[in-house]
Specification:
heterotrimer; A alpha/beta; B alpha/beta; C mainly alpha; B: alpha/beta; four-stranded parallel β-sheet; C: Fumarate Reductase Cytochrome B subunit; 12 helices; binds iron/sulfur cluster
């Protein structure tokens, strides 16, 4: 399922937890791992200067500098690198999300793993909001493969996952999220919890719905899930379906807690909120910030079905 | 040592030369070698005699030394009215002396001339508007840069930049493959959000041929996607050329006229090949200046016009808004105070002031002019290549003060800046002086407020 | 002496003046090069002419340009100085009597008080221009001996003429000094940067065409000088 994994790191402690997972995946799934760091944000007009992503300092890039950064990466991940054989370290200059997406595309990776790169730590985001917004959000939006974001220490090894929560909203993108989650669940023999939150704020603005209406709505959604999604599981049994009302990110986090989820899977909604303007960010970002377990964002059907077979 | 290994009179024409220069961090060795570089005075004088004609000779001669150009130069203002920053002084002490000495100048003089030509003048041409004789120091410094380039006295970054154009016909090492591949990539990434989105490459007889800045391709391909989306929404029949897509010219900043010619000829060849009705260039000021305003002369086109009519992006946007090809959602217009950075290159030197005003009238509710503005606007502070020259970082940062104060005086927190260079300069000025502003190109702003026609919306 | 300065020397002075300026004119026009100047002079003539005319006219009108308005005090000096230089000698009664005597025609003459006012005003303006040169650092740094010498060359005929006409001091000395300095000035015009008397128009026309043809004239109302 994971033959080639791209670990996009800011080469700072923010990404330590993600690093562990990434190296673990390399080991346990026998995947090829590309550790990739984008080291400097270039300017729009003519200038050789880049802003170093970690320090925020101006730097002039030359081959030495890139080598030096790679050396730093090697030191940072010395422990993890010890018993690996299929890992390459790479660094590039550019806008982080763009270079990560470019790399993922060039290498046709099966998955991108990254740290949360949350706003405060993400120099790119706080210093250059106009340029990058949030790296993670943009990667999640643009990537064709699943993007797994890890912000807290991950206690369970992927092979041992037993509960996967997939949040869906009946869109095409969440169909992809569902398929990928189902594939993973089957592969590691985990419980798949299908979850949908009826967004009260998002539907008809200003209208307060009566309890009956909400319940009727919930019933329809449940019906749809049962008709549209469950058949795709082709008999996989370890499935639950849950529909609730509320603010999506809150509800999905609650659900993850209740189910002791090892992984949350969801679609990143492109038109959900304007990434530049939303102060709180998209649902995915909200979930990532608060989730105790890794969050996978899946938007497209690429990599969700097994093409090797 | 007459010629250095890196710093010499030979322009960069091969990848090996380019790599060697790039490997020299910050041009350390390059500038060391420059200290020993000989001046070929007979050649210099011969060039001057051939190319210094009555217009420039007259300017140098009749300058009344009246100082009326002093306050027109933002460097003079930013440096606390330092008399050595008076445009007339700057040009007379460099080009003027060089001519008076019949080209018999030494290495130290050339260093001084280089530092003056690149760190004390951005070729913004503002002084020419304030001189009673119309003496345009911007034009003369540009000429001087050509002389300096021919003698090898050119900032390291610009030697590289001009080499890029000579080798890749682009300001960065972006090949035709990279470019075409990026177009496809962007189409792929955005087509789900924008059904029917296309990125047509080399389509003959299109209405519009779109040309760009290599940095967009290399680092900011979203910019390309945004342009594609806006063309798509406006229902334009457009294309990009697989070769001849680069509109910018670091060779112009460098004074490498041969490189300039090669660069624009690649664009004109694309026009001839694809026969579009017109050309539109991205939101870049010097690109438009190079390819549309000056380019025809480098290429020897006697009418001074590009092979097909050429438009800056703001012209296209103004037209699209005027004709209703793009419609703005009134509720989404910019409510906060907003100001506009008039780029010297397409406002003062290409007469597009009204386009900018027209666009702002559609998209902003509280548009505030800088003072002065339009053709009289001050340079952002980073023009003429200055933004990108490490050696002159300090001088550049000081020069930004004028723009900072202009922006502060408007009270606006958002600056619309449809020029890559100005955009950078404004970003840098926020970084250095922290005045709490944001800045943007037009494309992202438009995308946020444009009404998407029913049939182009993605189905849910 | 009087014979000499009003005879052969006058001929020489006027010849140098006129032929010198004609030469300057021809030299300037012939030196224009569409490709080096990057202005297609030969095309888009309408835009070129319009640009040139706007460029010249705006600058001939006192306070007609942003620059003239910005340096309002200096602009006053400049115009008083130049109007004095051009109007006074051409329309002075004495000069026109001489003209009639020698060539049989004359131009309308200025009343004496007006001529006097112009002359004095011009000399005061010259004084302030000189003081400005010394006082303002941004002008001082530009100033060379050449600039001061030229200013003196221009002011002397007016000063001497004024003394001679009002018979202050030795009349015949001042008269000859006046004629001589006037002739020096005439000779200096084409040979020094006083040639801006002509080149001002050419240079302004050129930059006007530059803006009119190339730099935006075809896409805007013309540069607001
Ligand atoms: S304004 Fe013109 S004439 Fe006066 S000093 Fe400047 S360049 Fe010379
Ligand atoms: S062109 Fe601009 S920067 Fe250069 S001297 Fe003139 S006003 Fe100053
Ligand atoms: S960077 Fe912008 S403001 Fe500065 S010279 Fe260029 S166009 Fe003008």
């Amino acid at each position: 399922m994971f033959k080639k994994i791209l670990f996009a790191t800011s080469a700072s402690p923010v990404c330590d937890n993600a690093a562990k997972v990434a190296f673990d995946l390399e080991l346990k799934w026998d995947a090829r791992l590309i550790v990739f760091h984008v080291l400097g944000i270039p300017t729009h007009g003519f200038s050789p200067f880049v802003t170093d992503v970690r320090t925020g300092e101006r730097e002039q890039v030359d081959p030495d500098y890139v080598d030096w950064v790679k050396e730093e990466m090697r030191n940072t991940y010395a422990d993890l690198l010890k018993d690996t054989e299929n890992v390459t370290l790479e660094a590039a200059v550019g806008v982080p999300h763009r270079e990560i997406l470019r790399k993922a595309r060039d290498e046709d990776v099966d998955m991108i793993v990254m740290g949360a790169h949350t706003r405060p730590e993400d120099i790119g985001a706080s210093r250059f909001r106009n340029v990058v917004g949030s790296t993670m959000q943009k990667v999640a939006k643009g990537a064709r493969c699943p993007v797994v974001i890890i912000s807290r220490p991950c206690t369970t090894c992927w092979k041992l996952f037993s509960n996967i929560v997939v949040g869906i909203d009946l869109s095409k993108a969440s169909g992809a999220a569902f398929l990928w989650a189902a594939r993973l669940a089957r592969e590691v023999d985990a419980n798949l919890h299908i979850f949908h939150a009826v967004d009260l704020a998002g539907t008809e603005v200003g209208q307060i719905k009566s309890q009956e209406e909400i319940e009727a709505h919930i019933a329809t959604v449940r019906g749809k899930i049962e008709n549209l999604y469950l058949p795709q599981l082709k008999g996989y049994e370890k499935v639950t379906v849950m529909v609730r009302e509320g603010v999506p990110y809150v509800e999905i986090l609650k659900q993850a807690r209740e189910r002791q989820a090892d992984l949350i899977v969801m679609a990143h909604h492109t038109r959900e909120i304007d990434p530049e303007q939303a102060l709180l960010g998209s649902t995915v970002e909200q979930v990532v910030l608060r989730s105790a377990c890794p969050v996978a964002s899946v938007n497209r059907l690429d990599k969700t079905v097994d093409t090797s077979a | 040592m007459p010629e250095g290994i890196l710093c010499n009179k030979t322009p960069v024409d091969t990848v090996e030369q380019l790599q060697a220069l790039l490997a020299d961090k910050s041009g350390k060795q390059y500038y060391e070698e420059m200290k020993l570089l000989d001046v070929d005075t007979p050649a210099l004088w011969a060039t001057i005699q051939k190319s210094l004609k009555s217009r420039l000779r007259t300017w140098l001669e009749i300058c009344a030394r009246c100082g009326m150009c002093a306050d027109s130069c933002f460097f003079y203002l930013a440096n606390d009215r330092d008399p050595t920053q008076v445009p007339s002084y700057k040009i007379q002490s460099t080009l003027g002396d060089m001519v008076r000495r019949k080209g018999k100048v030494d290495n130290a003089f050339m260093h001084y001339a280089m530092d003056t030509a690149w760190s004390r003048c951005t070729c913004c041409n503002r002084c020419g508007m304030y001189c009673p004789f119309g003496i345009d120091m911007g034009v003369m410094f540009s000429y001087l840069r050509g002389l300096l380039f021919s003698q090898g006295f050119v900032p390291w970054e610009l030697k590289i930049g001009s080499g890029m154009h000579r080798i890749y016909r682009a300001q960065m090492d972006v090949t035709t493959d990279d470019w075409v591949e990026t177009c496809g990539w962007m189409c792929e990434e955005y087509e789900e959000d924008w059904p029917g989105l296309e990125f047509p490459v080399d389509k003959p007889n299109a209405d519009i041929i779109y040309t760009v800045n290599a940095r967009e391709v290399k680092h900011y391909p979203e910019d390309l996607a945004e342009a594609a989306i806006l063309f798509h929404l406006a229902g334009e029949n457009w294309t990009v050329p697989s070769e001849g897509w680069e509109e910018t010219s670091l060779a112009m900043f460098a004074g490498d006229w041969v490189g300039c010619k090669k660069q624009v000829e690649s664009v004109y060849a694309a026009m001839e090949r694809l026969k579009p009705k017109r050309m539109v260039v991205t939101e870049c000021g010097h690109a438009y200046r190079a390819t549309v305003i000056e380019g025809p002369y480098w290429a020897g086109l006697k009418t001074g016009q590009t092979p097909v009519e050429s438009f800056h992006y703001v012209e296209w946007v103004a037209e699209a808004l005027r004709t209703g090809k793009l419609k703005i959602d009134p509720a989404k217009r910019i409510k906060e105070p907003v100001t506009y950075q008039d780029s010297c290159n397409y406002i003062r030197n290409a007469g597009l002031r009204e386009c900018a005003r027209e666009i702002m009238s559609y998209i902003a509710e509280d548009f505030r002019e800088m003072r002065p503005c339009g053709e009289h606007n001050f340079c952002c502070g980073g023009g003429g290549g200055l933004n990108g020259i490490g050696r002159y970082r300090e001088q550049r940062n000081v020069g930004l003060k004028v723009k900072r104060d202009q922006i502060l005086a408007t009270g606006a927190k958002l600056v619309v800046s449809p020029c890559h260079n100005c955009w950078d300069a404004i970003r840098d000025l926020e970084e250095i002086y922290h005045i709490g502003i944001r800045w943007s190109f037009l494309k992202p702003l438009l995308l946020k407020m444009v009404i998407v026609p029913e049939h182009l919306r993605p189905e849910e | 002496m009087y014979e000499f300065v009003t005879g052969p020397l006058a001929w020489i002075a006027f010849s140098v003046f006129f032929f010198g300026l004609i030469w300057r004119f021809v030299w300037y026009i012939r030196g224009l090069n569409w490709q080096l100047d990057r202005v297609s002079y030969g095309h888009h003539t309408g835009y070129g002419v319009k640009g040139a005319a706007r460029s010249i006219v705006s600058w001939l009108i006192p306070y007609g340009t942003h620059s003239w308005r910005f340096y309002s005090g200096f602009t006053l000096l400049v115009f008083v100085f130049h109007i004095g230089i051009i109007i006074t000698p051409i329309f002075l009664l004495g000069h026109n009597l001489l003209l009639e005597e020698r060539w049989g025609f004359r131009l309308p003459a200025l009343p004496d008080p007006v001529a006097d006012t112009l002359t004095v005003a011009m000399m005061i303006a010259a004084l302030f221009i000189m003081l400005r040169r010394i006082a303002l650092p941004e002008v001082r740094i530009l100033t060379t001996f050449y600039d001061i010498a030229l200013l003196l060359i221009v002011v002397t005929p007016f000063f001497t003429g004024f003394l001679a006409y009002h018979q202050i001091g030795d009349y015949s000395f001042w008269l000859i000094a006046h004629i001589l300095s006037g002739e020096i000035m005439l000779i200096a015009v084409p040979l020094t940067k006083l040639s801006h008397a002509l080149l001002f128009f050419l240079s302004r026309a050129q930059i006007g065409m530059d803006y009119g043809i190339k730099r935006g004239g075809m896409k805007s109302q013309g540069l607001p000088w």
